[in-house]
Amino acid sequence: MTAVSIDALDLAALLCSRVCHDLISPIGAIVNGLEVLADENDEETKNFALDLIKKSSNTASAKLQFCRIAFGAAGSAGAQIDSGDAEKVARGILEDDKTKLDWQLPRLLLPKNRVKLLLNMLLIAAQAIPRGGRLGVAAVGEGESMGFNITATGTNAKLPPNAALISGEAGEDALDAHRIQPYYTGLLARACGLTTQAALDGETVVIAAR
Q: With 50 as the cut, is the pLDDT of residue 1 above it?
């Protein structure tokens, strides 16, 4: 594997592209729903459009709240974030009929980069169980030096293809909007003085930062 580095401006641009990619689908659905409302007279169709707008608005809001903490400044330099807020935004985008989140972290204030790291680790873990399953979140250590152990258990669980990027290794492929998030996760871990590791153990993928 080949170590990779990226210009700060390119990093910012690729992260923005990743956020836009996450938001374009629900926002596009809202626009489609509004167009249906404007053009249709059938009551059943209008009710369907209203339901689509409501669900898509909730999805867009949940993703924005998540991205604000996971990728954004979320406060001034050196700010702390309530782990309860991290749990709330994580449940908002990761939990559904197929996937459940088992959050075992105590509620406390943590340095914002550690919270950003945790949320980004969860995004990678969620990709490991495309058919759904259970995501587990546990603390490693305590206090402001806390690390994290994330597990993803489900049918056909497998390491996401770009998981190696959390250790700063990119192979031969260039970074793009799809690969930037795991690379950014590794940057956060190293900024926190932690070492990251991803491994498959049976039907469980383990992503750890210690």
A: no
Cα–Cα distance, 99 to 87 (Å, whole number): 15
Residue 75 has pLDDT above 80, yes or no: no
| Number of domains forming the structure of the chain | 1
- How far apart are alpha carbons 204 and 128 in whole angstroms? 9
CATH number of the domain encompassing residue 28: 3.30.565.10
Q: Is residue 79 part of a domain?
A: yes
Average pLDDT over residues 65-87: 85
pTM (two decimals): 0.90
In a domain, 1, yes or no: no
Full residue range of the structural domain in which residue 16 is found? 8-209
Classify residue 132: in a domain, yes or no: yes
